[in-house]
Amino acid sequence: MAVDQDQVVGMSWNELCVKLGRRPLEMDKSMSDKKIVVPEGMLQAAMGISYVGDDLVDELRKRIEAALRWWSKNPTAPTTDQAMEIGKKFSNQPSVCDYVMQVCAEWQRRCFLAPGPEVPEEIKDLLYEGKRVGCSNPQESSRFIEESDRRVLEAYRRGKEGK
Hints:
The chain is mainly alpha-helical.
């Protein structure tokens, strides 16, 4: 059964398997057998919110592990538009491997970020979206673009408030 890509955006792996008439249990069983490793930095970040006694560290690790296990069973994939946007951002990579690593890391980062503010039509031409910046370091270029676009949006907002 063919499924249009727009029909599967936002579906979990299990939902997609059911829609295609396949059994999702094979993946679930293999995933449940795998150990989920909570990255130390993630645990430290969670503990850093407030004091967590030693007795609660194990409980916190279990909760994070449960969230990561859920995510590993329900991976998210970008829409075609999102993939194209990310791909353009890193199109200047020296190799295919570097390109793939940058695109994957960017998608992983975006999975947890709230969507950016709506951009008014009046200022879209002032933003860097989709434009290249003459910087050899993609991470520096990305930070420059984000900061520049944030400042343009803030200036627009302040101008609107001042009227």
